[in-house]
Amino acid sequence: MPLPPDPESDAKSDRDSDHRADPGAPLPPRVSILVISYNTQAMTLACLRSVLAETTVPYEVIVLDNDSPDGSAAAIAGAFPPAAFPQVRLIASGTNHGFAGGNNVAAREARGDLLLLLNPDTLVRDRAIDRLVAFADEKPVAGIWGGRTLTGEGRLDPGCAFADQTLWSLLCRTSGLALVMKDSPTFNPEMYGGWQRDSVRAVDVVMGCFFLIRRSLWERLGGFDLTFVMYGEEADLCRRARALGAQPWMTPAAEIIHFGGASAPRVDREILKMKARVTLARRHLAPWQRPLGVTLLRVWPLTRALGGAAVARLLGRDRGAAGHWRSVWRRRAEWQNGFPAPPAA
Prior knowledge:
Blueprint: H1 7-21, E1 31-37, H2 41-54, E2 59-66, H3 72-79, E3 88-93, H4 98-107, E4 114-118, E5 122-124, H5 128-138, E6 144-150, E7 161-162, H6 167-175, H7 177-180, E8 201-202, E9 205-206, E10 210-214, H8 215-221, H9 233-243, E11 249-258, H10 266-284, H11 290-315, H12 320-330
Helix pairs in contact: 2-3, 6-11, 10-11, 10-12, 11-12
């Protein structure tokens, strides 16, 4: 079922009327851009500069720094003083809220009809935010919109839009079929097979690094579930949004660079991803599928490590990838039960 009429549209009309009454006043923000930083000072500054250089739609930027030890908050405050950059607001938190919690806190300060979650390790290019907002105007019933993401080397990151984790997709991943037949929509369903993210398409999930959502929908959902400290929160939110009638869409016209993994070592990131996957399986798979789904997830790193080592030995390749998965397997006690429930408020 489609989303009900957006109550924000009436509020937007009121704000537009107020601006017409005083044309000298600055335009109210159409989109609130939320940037949650942690220990990524140089990247955060570069991200903010790219937003200012490439965005013309009325906007505000709310930067929440998660108590970074690298001096990020002071650097942001010095580079973007309020007098010179009134559209940039800094929240220097004395607590590390994580990605999910940080966005929930920042969203409460937002004034725009739309919220754009933007990672600090990204660069906006070629009016990407303007293009994404225009896409939202073209497909207002979607409720959630995303764009195309490139890696720092300029290659496509297919994770910018992906399908839900299912029992079949877990079987394909654990057996290696998703890796061997990565261009097959049947055997690599989470990544939509060989789709190059080069066409407009409805998707299950938009990656949280460049994630546009109607503010009224965000508020109806209560924002991110704080069970997901980092990773998995956008998959859970998109599931809940679709249950309300939303349908995420992505467009290749809005393109950013996402360097990825700037705030944690690779194995530590994989541990968090595995925690998220286990939590998603326990929450969203059908009850009869959950035990098997969690079991498949628990053995997946082992199959990747063994399969990767065998292929590397056969082809004479570097065994780094196999070693990575072996490390994840050895640390399975940290992730095999998923994220713990957050403390009661």
